[in-house]
Amino acid sequence: MGPIAGMARARPRSNTPTYNSTLGAGTALRKDSIGSTEWGSSFAINNGDGNHSLGESTFNLSQSTANLMQATISEHRVPIAMAVNEYSHVWFKSANVEERITRTFGVVLISFAATSLPLLTDVHSDIEPLQFSLVDAAAIKSVVPNKQLLLPDSVASQHGPSYYYQFDRLGLANWLLAQQKEKPTAAFFNAEVLRYEVSEEEGLIQPPLLLSNYWKCEEDHTDVRIDYHLNTECPITAPLLNLVFATKLSGNVSNVTSDPAANWSAESSSLSWTVTELSRHGDCAGSLKARVHLSAGGPSQPAHVHVVFQCSDATISGVNVSLANSDTYHLSMVRRKVMAGKYFSEPEIRK
C-alpha cells in the first residue's frame, strides 16, 4: 500500500535536536514565534568535550508492554505509548558550584503499534483525530512542534501551563505508510512530535547534580579530586543511575592509584569512575581521588571533568503528557526520563 494520493509524504526528522549556539549564548525561541519556527530548526549546545546526544527518536518497549498494546488492539482500541526525555546541560565555571550556566531541553516521543496501522491509515474511516496535551508546563520557555504530523491550528502560538495538539490524520497516515515500507518487520513506529526548552530563569530550574574538581600538577605526578553531591533543591527525588565521571590526562602515564578504583584508558588518555546509583536515601555525595604518575611529559594540563547519568520516572521541569478523553485511543504507557547532556566542570588548580 503506497502513500495516499494527493498527499505529501510526511517524514519528521528523527535526528537529535541541537541548539546552534554555544552554551549560554544565542537567541532563545519566543513563545510568540513558535508557529513560524521550522521543524528542522535545531537546539544545540556545543561547549566542552564529549559527544552527548540531546535526544533519541526511539524508546524501547518491554515484552509485557508490547503484549498489553497488542491486547488493546484486539479490543478495538488504539494503544498509544508516549515518552518525555529531558536533557540537562550544565557548565560549572569554577569550584564554586553556584557559578554555573544551566540549560534544559526536552523531546516528546510517540509510539504506534504496527497492528494499529490498518485503522490509522484508513482516512475514510470516521475515527476521531488523535489529540494530546503537554501539561504541567509552566516552566516551558519555548516549543517546536512537528508541523508534518500536527494540524496547523494546533501548532500556532500557545502559552502554558498546558499546550494542546491534534494530529493531521492524512499526514499521520502517509508517515506511517512510509515507515512501514521502510521497516516492514517493525513492531512499533516511533516519532518525535515536539521539542521544547525549559526556562533558565534564575532559581526556577536546578541541576540534579553539583560537580567540582581540583588539580595539582607536578613534573612527575598529577593529583585529581572530583567532588559531587545531589542538589537537594532540584525537584527530582528519584535516584541518579549509571553515573560515569571522566577526564583527560596529558603526559606519559606510568601508573595510576585511585580511591575508589578508577579505569585508565591509555588509548584515549582518559581517567574515569563509575558510580551505580546516587540516592537521597543512601549515599548522596562523594569524592573521587587519583594520583597519576608520569614518566615524562609533565606537568599535566588540567582538563574538564564530564559526567553522564540518567534518572527514570522524572522530569526536571515537571512536564507530563496526556491524551484527550477518547473511546478510540488508549494511553498504554508514559515514560519520563532525565539524562545528562553536556554536563561538565572547569578545573580548579591547586598550588
Automatic annotation (TrEMBL):
<dbReference type="Pfam" id="PF10291">
    <property type="entry name" value="muHD"/>
</dbReference>
<feature type="region of interest" description="Disordered">
    <location>
        <begin position="1"/>
        <end position="22"/>
    </location>
</feature>
<feature type="domain" description="MHD">
    <location>
        <begin position="84"/>
        <end position="346"/>
    </location>
</feature>
<dbReference type="InterPro" id="IPR018808">
    <property type="entry name" value="Muniscin_C"/>
</dbReference>
<feature type="compositionally biased region" description="Polar residues">
    <location>
        <begin position="13"/>
        <end position="22"/>
    </location>
</feature>
<protein>
    <submittedName>
        <fullName>MHD domain-containing protein</fullName>
    </submittedName>
</protein>
<dbReference type="InterPro" id="IPR028565">
    <property type="entry name" value="MHD"/>
</dbReference>
<dbReference type="GO" id="GO:0005905">
    <property type="term" value="C:clathrin-coated pit"/>
</dbReference>
